[in-house]
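Blackboard transcription, Thursday session:
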Amino acid sequence: MQVTMNEFDGIRRVVLDGRLDTAGVGAIELSFTAMTASAGKPVVVDLAAVSFLASLGVRMFIGTARSVAAKGNRLVFYNATPAVMEIIDTMGLAEIIDIAADEAEAMALVQA
Amino acid sequence: MAAAASAPMLRSARFDAGRLSMQLGNGLAAIAEGGAALRDFCAREGISDAVINRVDVVFEEVVANIVRHGFAPGSAQTIAVEARIEGDAMVLVFDDDGRPFDPTLQPPPAPFTRLADAQVGGLGVALVQRLARSVAYAQPEATGVGFLPVNRLTVTIATGERSPPG
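(Written on the board underneath:)
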């Protein structure tokens, strides 16, 4: 599991790559939290390369969304694969976290 | 001094027609190693990618829960997993000799409505129950010697149509 980031136009883009299973979350949670919660600006998270999501990953998403919101910014996830979307939908995560279909929608949402 | 190699957590795996039997050790590596064997079994049985993902998530959640909630000292610290095809379903049976724990008795978390109020406890059990057709807990009778399971969780997942087994 890897996490990388870049920035443009005042938005931080974080890219996750791998399985968000127990080991994967353990490997990147601190880095992911640091890259998102401490950004001090809107954040979009690209999930295109995330092949697996379960409850630990969901918990991580909720925690970081709270941290970003506490600083008055928005966090939007996008490009989820069908496997990841099934877990997002099953847990009703889109009720409390912004989930966009693609980067264009994510950029529009995060700046709204 | 060279570090000792870690013992594999997947202690044994046996594939038969329509059935996989595994014995896992008590460690988080059991999730990765056992999960890989289970995904391979599902693919061989012609199960669709969507259902393989559900099986994979259920396996991750159940085994992680067992490992996290601890084994009593003196137990074999073993998790036995059987996966078998029954008609239009995959039946997963998890036996462990950890502390008695019935996850089906946990109250489900409240539905998400507000980010600030979202409960993050119990999500794993809730996810398993939502992905599965059925989840049942039992405490098997202890017979014989060696591994004596304390907890048995049986999770049934609909498989839908399958490709011819490869």
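Lecturer's comment: DSSP finds three helices and six strands in chain B.
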